[in-house]
Every structure is written in C-alpha cells, then in structure tokens.
C-alpha cells in the first residue's frame, strides 16, 4: 500500500469506514507509521489535558487600545473621504452655476440661484437628518468602494453636463438662440 501524507491519515477528523480499515491494516504491518500514529495520539491526549490559560491583563489592555486606535484611524480615513467627496461636489456645483451663467438667459440664472438659496436656507434644518443618513450609509459601505462611487458620481454628472455644453456651443456657432 502506498503511504499517503501523514496529515491525511492522522489529522483528518472524518474518514470513511473503508479508509479507517485500510489504515488499521497498514498500521499492523508498518512500524514507522504505527510509531507516528501512536505519537500523534499521545500529542492529542496531552493537548486535551492542558490547562486553559487566561491572557495577562496587560495583553487585554494593549489589545483594547489597539482596537480603539484602529477604529479611530478608520473613522479619520472615512471622514477624509467624505471631505474629498464634499469638496468635489461643491466644485461641481460651482462649475454648474458658472456654466449656467455662461450659457443661459439671465432670468433662468436668477431662478436657479433662487433655488440654490432656498436649498441652502433649508439645509441647516435638515443637517441632522443628512448627517445621520450619511453616517449610517458610510458605515454600511466598505471603505474601498467610496473612491469608486465618487468617481462614478462625478462621471455621471460631468459627462451629461459636458455633452450638453458641447451641444449648446455647436448650436450657438450655427446661430441658434437660447431656448
């Protein structure tokens, strides 16, 4: 009979009845494997009778402080990404307003600015709701997805806006007036 790896025979918990009988027959004839098998059984018995040791108090304190530091670092990283996303959003908002001023009629710009002012005056009253929702979702979304989602959002806004600006510029070159 071939010798399979020792781990396969002695360390696997569940083996079939046929495999167990094959192993028993082989152990009767092979002294090397029998000695190894008995040694493993002795090791298992010793491990079963070892006393359980509690970790030292300093280890527990060090581990808790390490875990708290990791949580603080992840929160700092998270809020840095939130700041980056807010900065990109504000940049896009200013860019949109600049494009509106450049391409649209002054009445529509005034209307857009009025909507923006109305939004900004309502923002403090809903800040807690926005903060709660953002905190909840930022803890639910894995940290490595935030840059990808920010890029997708940025692309989702910039691509149609740039296409619209290009179309308006082409129409202006052809002599079309703003609708």
From TrEMBL:
Swiss-Prot/TrEMBL keywords: Membrane, Transmembrane, Transmembrane helix
Keyword Membrane: yes
Transmembrane segments: 81-104, 144-167
Name this polypeptide is given: Zinc-finger domain-containing protein
Species this chain originates from: Thermanaerothrix daxensis
């Amino acid at each position: 009979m071939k010798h399979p790896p020792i781990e396969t025979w002695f360390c696997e918990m569940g083996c079939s009845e046929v495999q167990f009988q094959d192993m028993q027959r082989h152990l009767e004839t092979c002294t090397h494997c029998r000695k190894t098998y008995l040694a493993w059984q002795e090791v298992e018995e010793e491990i079963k009778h070892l006393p359980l040791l509690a970790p030292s108090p300093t280890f527990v304190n060090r581990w808790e402080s390490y875990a708290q530091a990791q949580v603080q670092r992840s929160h700092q990283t998270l809020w840095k990404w939130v700041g980056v996303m807010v900065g990109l959003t504000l940049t896009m908002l200013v860019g949109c307003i600049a494009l509106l001023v450049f391409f649209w009629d002054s009445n529509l710009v005034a209307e857009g600015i009025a909507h923006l002012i109305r939004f900004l005056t309502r923002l403090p009253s809903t800040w807690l709701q926005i903060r709660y929702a953002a905190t909840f979702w930022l803890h639910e979304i894995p940290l490595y997805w935030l840059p990808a989602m920010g890029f997708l959002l940025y692309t989702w806004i910039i691509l149609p806006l740039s296409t619209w600006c290009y179309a308006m510029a082409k129409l202006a070159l052809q002599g079309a007036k703003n609708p």
